[in-house]
Amino acid sequence: MILESVIILIYSISLLLIFLYALAQLNLLFNYLRAKKAKDNCEKFNFSNPNEIPLVTIQLPVYNEMYVMERLLDNIAEIDYPKDKLEIQVLDDSTDETIVTTKAHIEKLQASGLDIKHITRTDRKGFKAGALKEGLEIAKGEFIAIFDSDFLPNSDWLLRTVPYFKNQEIGVVQTRWGHINRNYSLLTKIQAFALDAHFTLEQVGRNSKGHFINFNGTAGVWRKTCIIDAGNWEGDTLTEDLDLSYRAQLKNWKFKYLEDVETPAELPVVISAARSQQFRWNKGGAENFRKMLGRVLTSQNISPKTKVHGLLHLLNSTMFLNVLIVGILSIPMLYIKNEYAHLKPYFYVMSFFVLSTVIFFVCYWHMYKNIYGAGFKNFFKYVGMFFVFFSIAMGFSLHNSIAVLEGHFGKKSEFVRTPKFNITKFKDNWKNNKYMKKNLSIHVVFEGLLMLYFGFGMYSAFIVGNQGGDFGLFPFHLMLFVGFGYVFFKSLASKV
């Protein structure tokens, strides 16, 4: 009974942590709904007065971006802002032939009168954080706008964001990500679904109550003095944006999140690219939990509620580990439940935690209907999307849990960029992308084994006990089977 007791204990702790995270999401939903009714009275620069238009530097950190570099430069060149108040830095760490083609394209833009500079480094020390830091040293702007290579800001983007910096307490203005290839495939739809929840419910819910939010690495503007005051960019985690965001807010800088300003971007269209992005984000989240835990807990400037939300925010990626633990242990728990009759009261109590799924369902529905509209037809579509999203999210749980464990245990790894494709239509071909990894991760083998494991879990529902089976966990195991099956077969197909 010792092994069974250990399984029950670990399973219960993981369920409890997921439930607490769900409660935090529910609180963010209430914050979000209240914020939608509130009027924004934030003071803004009057750009009709030339004296109030500040000097802005746009930083474009890039690395081997053959497929999107020309699109990025042409798009940024169309930004509507006084030319004498705008500087553009192309922070180019490329090691392939794009270093030459980018230089030639920049020279053409310079000839048109645009203040754009091509800045290269002899090594990638600090990766993206290092490039941003070196560019900052010579940046002329009072405010620093940052765009990754797959982002396409609208021409009025600076006119809609920079005015908020009239409030001297604001250190960052962050905008919502849009998705130019949302409907390309099931994979892009799922990624868009997850990101939409973050950029509506979470960012607004946290920001409206003064809780910690994060600059998302792109599609935002920093006050230069805020970056310096917070300690500047540091490359000791894989999510330098989250790191600097917390250091700035611990210094009492305010963040302004603009849900109504959408910045279009391209989602990864291949699962290997999505995997590398997920790995970096989740490992970086765990690294920042290690780095920021003590600072958040001991800070005298923030409320207990903000501390709780901050810690759960930093533990966001760790929820994948809890989901994986619950999933793997759920099958032994199914047998324990039907073997030990005296534990029935415990399992009745444990059934309460299905409420976590209900909470997530309600929270995500509010996000979904804001984008697609309410009504029975859209709700019916949402139910299907929610099932598919949760299944595939759980299918990523092994891969992301490994990233989380590496982050928590301090294992260092290289900053692996996400390959860009410049693909928006289904007929576009991605298979010849030179930046895609050709090798298959060993993780994929274990994902295939987990697919079979949860298939066994579904079979177990028919044979356990002496009352004709137990189907309480069957839907959960079905979602895990579908999720790991999707990730496994999609990963194999991407290498063919």
Automatic annotation (TrEMBL):
Transmembrane segments: 6-30, 311-335, 347-367, 379-398, 440-464, 471-489
Localization annotation: Golgi apparatus membrane
GO biological process, one term: cell wall organization
Gene Ontology MF terms: glycosyltransferase activity
Keywords, comma-separated and alphabetical: Cell wall biogenesis/degradation, Glycosyltransferase, Golgi apparatus, Membrane, Transferase, Transmembrane, Transmembrane helix
Pfam family, any one: Glyco_tranf_2_3
InterPro entries the UniProt entry points to: Nucleotide-diphossugar_trans (IPR029044)
Domain of life (superkingdom): Bacteria
Topology term for the membrane: Multi-pass membrane protein
Main location: Golgi
Name of the molecule in the record: Glycosyltransferase family 2 protein
Source species of the chain: Neotamlana laminarinivorans
